[in-house]
Batch of 3 targets.
Target 1
Amino acid sequence: MADVLSQSEIDALLSSLSTGEVDADELKKEETEKKIKVYDFKRALRFSKDQVRSITRIHENFARLLTTQLSAHLRTYVSISVASVDQLPYEEFIRSVPKMTILNVFEPFPLDGRFVMEMNPNIAYAMLDRMLGGRGEPYNKVENLTEIEIKIMTQLFQRMLEVFREAWLSVEEFDPVMEDVEVNPQFLQLVSPNETVVVISFSTAIGEASGMINICLPHVVIESILPRLSIHLWMQEKQKERNEEELQSLEWHVKGSQVPFIVELGRTDVTIEEFLSLGGGDMIELNQKYDRPLTARVGEESKFKVQPGKMKQSLAVQVTEVLEGLDNDE
């Protein structure tokens, strides 16, 4: 919103115009000149603002789900929240990663390519310590990981990928599979150095340990699903899901409703005098022949033709025909 000039500022401006200190033509020229914005092709912004917002929402959900999952699994205080979502060249991401860290490389099948989850060693070892019965104290021995420790951490990371898959279900159904665990980012080459990636950074606390978790998503890998990340389409999908849920709920309630099911043995007309004279043992002649099927009504609608019989000492009927388009009186 433009700044509003005070009355004194307006008077000063009019005074400058009248005295010639400010040239009105120059002001108009500056207004009509095109504003030039510097664009760095090495930092090409290939993700739109809508797509970045959608990615942010997805990973905010991922942070909530992962907090719940790790809290239950590690039985300690866990806090995970999205700190930032940035798009930058892959080379810049690799330079920002510490020389010795935990890099979890995984393939998001059916997409062609790889993602990477970088985890601060303090966080990784705090979780490892909890899983081995410790207090979750942070310590760093990234250069001396044993095969058993790598195996345990791999199993933990696979659990985290299940949460990642669940967070992305509204957009794409991934089947993420762990491919490798690296400790030196210089040995990790996901894409070309100038390829644009989106990096989601999570502020993480596990017990007394704190640090960052970063997820790197290369543009070339998720390019095929980018159109589905637009806010308009994402909201349509959500509305469609809500409508389907409402229909399922309505169907469930309708199926649970109770309606009267009546089988008529037949009908007849009698006078009041005949009705009053009825007694035990009297016979009433109906309009229904004994060798013809009976009509079953649901509410007031004739729905079935049935055959009377018995089932386990109880009266029962067997449906022989489904009626359609009949009037109530039939």
Target 2
Amino acid sequence: MEKMYAGARLRQLREDRSMTQSELARLLEISPSYVNQLEHNGRPLTLPVLLKLTETFGVDTEFFAARDTARLIADVREVFDDNTVSGAISAGEVDALTTTLPEVARTLVALHRRYREAVENVATLVTEQGLDRSTAQQPHEEIRDWFYLRRNHVAELDAPAEKLAAELRLHPGEVRSGLATGLLERHGVKVTAESLGPDQHHFDPRRKTLRLSPALRPGQAAFRLASELALLEAGEVIDRLVEDGKFSGDTARRLARIGLANYFAGAVVLPYRVFLGAAERYRYDITRLSDHFGVGFETVCHRLSTLQRPGTRGVPFSFVRVDRAGNISKRQSATGFHFSRVGGSCPLWIVYEAFGSPGRILTQIAELPDGKKYFWLARTVSRAAGGHGDPGKTFAIGLGCELRHAKRLVYSDGLALGTGAAVTPIGMGCKVCERPACPQRAFPAIGKPMRVDEHSSSLLPYPPLG
């Protein structure tokens, strides 16, 4: 058995039950000094003590297992990379904080996010006098953070959505008709097809009529049907999740309802166990999954990033959607990959290269400054918007996982994944990136001195000092 140090979780277990170290020692039939050593990671949990804990408190052994703190470490590092925050902290201190005091670290990250929001609000109010304060709060960021903290998995909706899909007997290729029948039989809602201008669908609860744009592809139409069915079937659960989320205002709460309804829709159209089984069988081949379930590339990628049900987890993915200008319009993560809020994204990231090869799936092994490696794939998706002359939409979709999972993906076949791997060094954004020799750098790193000499030049846009 590998040595297990679980001081913080043991202390949490004891404090949640208002017990002293002496009382816990009596229950475990060990000395108080031994308990103290366990809680301060001076000694590992032995198998007899672990079994006694699980029997006494009714917790699973997984409760004491080492937890992946990569996401939390990245969040804490960003706090101290902020040039408006004084102080410095070493990598070892970050690791110690996140491992021994994870709740303190999360509180620190939450406070920093509130601080950044306040700074942005003040800046906006100063430069745009008379602007409504609520417009500066960017409520969509609240929703992204909420899903991020849940690792993009909402068990309260995923399980009932899967159950509903079984009750409606939805089968690939027949999902749209099955959902329309379910809406009519369960809720008396009639589905019609008619032109709605720029809108994709509209539901009239008084007339119990759901109108769909005929321009929608079958997969898109099914998703819109499922999103309205979500509010009818799981409205109370969605309302409770929104209430518990303590979002800042009415706009954020409405966006949260839409986001949760869309999550439920994805879980109905692509039921968890059925979809995970197909994903494993096809080795996460997105094109085959799209064909099998009759949905688009983006929908499949987004659903793949949600497969984190305890006991039956898929590959933990990060999902991102960006436009040509580098704006990230969607980002969800079940991994330790961190999307920076400071300084934009890295131009060396494969997601941006996808625009140069429309429709092709590109791959990249990317290494972050902390040495952690990720396997990324990216492809563009395009959507027409109206008739001739109307501008359409083109995005790049990125899906990434830790390199250790790459062999489970068909896209890694034929690639060197070990010491001979072709690795691209990327960062979280130029302003916080620690790579001084990057020729693609757009901004100097915050807090790092530059070499400025009027009598010499460099291939590097912002050469470091020394």
Target 3
Amino acid sequence: MSNEKQVEDVIEKVENVEQENDTVEETVENPLQQQVDELKQQLEEQENRYLRLQADFDNFRRRVRLDAEAAEKYRAQSLVTDILPALDNFERALQVEANDQTKAVLQGMEMVHRQLVEALQKEGVEAIEAVGKTFDPYEHQAVMQVEEDSHEPNTVIEEFQKGYRLKDKVIRPSMVKVNQ
């Protein structure tokens, strides 16, 4: 029995040594594992920050591109808004009845008016159709409202001043009379 006892003692000692070895390994590995975990967390935070910055930069580039496209698309807007009153005056002048003395002047004015309208059309300016159309607050400015049985409700009856659109943007709404 003493051999068995000795074997058991040796096994117990080996187990104790193994436990102590595990404890020593844990105390050595624990700080290293903590450092590894901290470094992994820092790396993950840096990767997230990088991805957010990349997304912000992509958004910035897209905004700049869209702003540049809009600037190019509507580059003529200020010029057009300055020219529209002159175009209105041409149209009023062309409504004057012509006699023999003013016929040649009116023909010259018609040619200038036509060239002006063509130049504006090349830039994407078009007149907004109003008379007979349904009232649209984005394209029409109602300055009068009347009740007439001869027209549908909410229909533009008369146009006092033409409205204009530059490409897809209304730069001046039509001033109109609307049937209630």
